[in-house]
Amino acid sequence: MKNLFRTIFAPILNIFEKGDEPYAHKPLNRKILIVFGVMLSGLVAGIVAISSQTDTSLMEYIIPVVVFGSVALVALVVGLLGTDRAVAKIWGGK
Fold first, then answer.
1. Mean pLDDT of all residues in 58-70
2. Domain that holds residue 59
3. In-domain check, residue 15
4. Which of 44, 67, 70, 93 is the most buried (most CB within 10 A)?
5. Could you tell me if residue 6 is inside a domain?
6. What do you get for the CA distance between the two ends of the chain, in Å?
7. pLDDT, tens digit, for every residue of 5-48?
């Protein structure tokens, strides 16, 4: 199942997994990345919930939803499916 998701999200993962330079990776970095992705996903869900309860349309909230949603997606994909190199590249570790 993980290989199927790695294939689906290959365009995102390839950006962070390419290269052969040395990297430093700590196991806590992956956990923090996943927590960060979950928190941003919650923020996006909150924005959508607030926009649906007000008289305004979602179009007024589209920029935060797209930006935070994209960052959350990348964080979760790299955190859950990425290699250690991808996680280190997110953190900028060398």
1. 88
2. 28-94
3. no
4. 44
5. no
6. 30
7. 999 999 999 999 888 888 888 889 999 999 999 999 999 999 88
Q: Alpha-carbon Rg of the chain, whole angstroms?
A: 16
- The DSSP result for 17-73, as a single string, is H---S-----HHHHHHHHHHHHHHHHHHHHHHHHHHHSSS-GGGGHHHHHHHHHHHH
- CA 32 to CA 18: how far, in whole Å? 22
Mean local confidence (pLDDT), 41-57: 85
Beta-carbon count within 10 A of 7 CB = 9
56 class by beta-carbon count within 10 Å (0-12 exposed, 13-18 middle, 19+ buried): exposed
Count of other CB atoms within 10 angstroms of residue 42:
12
Q: Would you state the pLDDT for residue 21? A: 80
